[in-house]
Please model this.
Amino acid sequence: MNSETNQSRPEVKVRVEYSKTCQARYIAHLDTIDVICKALRRLQLPYAVTQGCHVRPKISFGPPLPLGHASYCEYFVLTLTEAVDSQTLQVSLNRELPSGMRVISITNPYVEARSGNFGEKLHYRFSFTSAEVAETAQQWLLNPETAFSAESKGKTRTYMIKSAVLGASIAKNDSLILEADFIQGQADVPSVSKIVTALAGFLDTRKDCLRLIERVSLSELQQKQEIPAN
Amino acid sequence: MKNVIEALSHWELLEIEKPARYLGGEVNQAAAKESPALRTCLVFPDLYELGMSNLALKIFYESLNQRPDIVAERAFSPWPDFESLLRRRGLPLYGLESGMPLKDFDVIFVTLPYEMTFTNVLNILDLAGLPLAWKNRNDGPIVIAGGPSASNPLPVAKFMDAVLIGDGEEAIIEICDSLIASKRAGASRSETRQALTKVEGLWVPEFPGRVKRRVFKGFSQSQPPLKPVVPNVQAIHNRAPLEIFRGCMKGCRFCNAGFFYRPKRERPVEDLVKYAGDLLQSTGEESLGLLSLSTSDYNRLEDLIRSLDKAKLYPEQSVSIPSMRMNDNTIALLDATPHIRKGGLTFAPEAGTQRLRNVINKNVTEEDIISVMKATGGSDYRTVKLYFMMGLPFETDEDIHGIVDLVKRLEAIGKTTKPRKQISISLSGFVPKPFTPFQWSEQASMSELRRKRQIVCRGLERGSSRVSWREEFLCLLESVLSRGDERVGELIESAFRNGCKFDGWHEFFSKEKWEKAFADTGIMAENYLRARPLEEQLPWDFIDFQVPRAYLENEYRLAEQAAGEQA
Model:
């Protein structure tokens, strides 16, 4: 699989969905991009490259995963100059990724939907060591009055989380698991990263009971999402 | 505790900067082995990002892990935020691969790349829960140091069970074999150390005697590390390193590396092209770094660059050449090969006048520098960096004014070229090093270095060049640490106890703490900074450096003559 720049060849896009768990969840977003680009080079995939002074693989990534969050729905879209077999690509990429990163599925070819830039909807799972703290966290997330302050572009801003939380419920079969849905990527809507940091601040010394934060699913919003009144 | 990493909580890891530095799990990390005969840990006494760029670490990691009976892990200096976490939790420093505490390894190999890491070494031993002095370590791992800053082992003799002088490739295997044999025989710690004295190049403080610098004669035919660990946090040098030759025969009289790595040994072009392919394929690095002390002195550089150009594996592949001695031909060659990274040109004239360059035997003429500067017109290079030293032996104020004059001439040429060149000047005080012809020279005082620096800064204040310099006290300290005797170990320990660490980082370096260490130990810096007569016995004379003392003496006299004849 040798990659040569050839503008006359038709380009094919593939979407690679991967998980980032265990110690890999502490690899920062830019380092993750670097790790993936190196894996693609090791495979010598026939990827297209950007034009300009600094040539790079033509690749785009999903929204950054906050440091420390595990995820089962990360993705990147890679442009190739020739078709590749999905199964072979998945097996070979898995061989080249660091411990804790794993390809889950490949969409090949991938046709990109028109993006209206309405942000994304995210489903999260929070694992606690205490059912009481899980319930406290649920109440905090569902309280329409919950607000917090955070730094944004050098300024301190106050956010109401009701603009971001679509719902939060304790798992039916496990009182230590809190599942929550969020939207992010819209104006004045705080990111999940900010909300989780604020939640940890709220829990204070009890935050150690929140032992794992997992991004379970992610979908791009095709229109502006209205938040139901809590 | 078997795995320290597992004891760290999610929120604790989020408190620290770049937690991936401390978690391992990178591509090409060595696999665990069942009951190895020897567990070794390679320690680099600086941050992960620097250590992961260190070539020695890659060489030893690969060669040791190729042995089925040896495990080699890695450990780096933790940044103060992570160190605080470890100390607060009472957790020891550990190997990244298994999370096993350092004190449970059989041997710790410490690389000493520069003197300013000495306090970090003590910090690592302390974080491992090991006594600092070898005499107080009755169990736990044997601690062995090596690297360019260990060429004079006396300043670190108090802390090390053994110090390797010279190349480590063969010696490290022999050391491991010796340790395995001692372990199997149930040897005492002292017996283990005594057995190590048989390894050529290894100096054991408990059994001091003459030692011969180790030279890896098979370098040219040897395979470099081809499957290095790919860091999960971008390393300081984000490239696949390929050492094309070792050693340098230019004979610059100030250069410790030039003598430490002698003789010059080149790898053949054909082998290097194959190695480059394997290395890029196993790392996926965008850039291949051709490493040596002076890459333009590689005999078949043009062949090599053209062959590498033909054998590209991926479109964005580039070559970086960090140590080029520039001339018109190299500029033409580099311009003809588009995939070479053209960040900036770097020159090290070292001295401002031809007289002084002759004294230090730096074979660069003013004409060379000026003609290269002219040749950069029309090339992609936009920045030119020049390194100068001050306080060199036989230096006069005229030489310092010479720096100003040379830079002004280059500024004038830079203004006429397209694109215009941005010139940066880096000034540093000269530090005399052991095993060089200037090992007898006086270290210039702080006030002298400062005065000379001000001459340059004032002379260039209306120009367009950016001038940076190294803190003068650091030069004096480096001089004490590199030409020290065993007493300097007390100074290093005292500085460490005062809180010194990361001394190479300006945000952490504390002149006051080091001054206190001098005062507390009663060590007079002047004793180490003074000029020494040629006939004086030097503390490190017990080392056969494979460069005869008589040769160094003669080189010193030649420098003296060059200064006298042309002054």
